[in-house]
# Entry
Amino acid sequence: MGHHTAKPLQEFESASQDLSALGALGSLLGAKDDIEEGMTTLAKLTKQLDEEWETEAKFLGDVCDAFDLIEVLLTAAAQAKKG
# Structure
């Protein structure tokens, strides 16, 4: 999953440090720090989700392997019974 989110996440994190587009509006509203903090938090959460998705994908692969093994064992048992 990380290969899909790495570049956008890097660009997002870079943008969180350069909020000059807000200009005076950001300064007047005091929002610049809040926005930077929010963007940093979102970037961290995205990284955590990526790690979680990788773990879940590995788990699902392991479950599939287990079912494949069960299928092989059941087939072998059925053949032995016919045998």
